[in-house]
Amino acid sequence: MNARGALGRYGEELAVRTLAGAGMTVVERNWRCRAGEIDIVAEDGDALVVCEVKTRREGSFEHPMAGVTPVKADRLRRLAEHWVSAHGGPPPGGVRIDLVGVLLPRRGAPVVEHARGVA
């Protein structure tokens, strides 16, 4: 695995811990289909959460939360539809798309932000 892949995996681990700490249950990680990949699929009560994780080092060009452009948001919505279709339909609480941004400073603890319903 290259350095970028390792950075992404580390960010996903922190995201999983953050979501679990918020009371969510992770159902699947790195789900792939022809349309792309969902980083994390989780349950939040009776809602399904499709979660994109963006990890950046401090001093990067953009903040992790800026990583979801309108094009990426459209792709996440399509991926959510594919996942729901492949897994028996939507849950009673509907489907939500969240973003977890992870910022890794040069020193100190990572900063993890969780934004609900971003797309």
TrEMBL record:
Residue ranges spanning the membrane: these are: none
The GO terms describing molecular function are: nucleic acid binding
Q: Which family does it belong to?
A: Belongs to the UPF0102 family.
Q: Which NCBIfam families match?
A: PRK12497.3-3
Classification via HAMAP family: UPF0102 (MF_00048)
Name this protein carries in UniProt: UPF0102 protein J0695_04015
Q: What's the source species for this entry?
A: Streptomyces beijiangensis
- Which taxonomic lineage does the organism of this UniProt entry have? Bacteria, Bacillati, Actinomycetota, Actinomycetes, Kitasatosporales
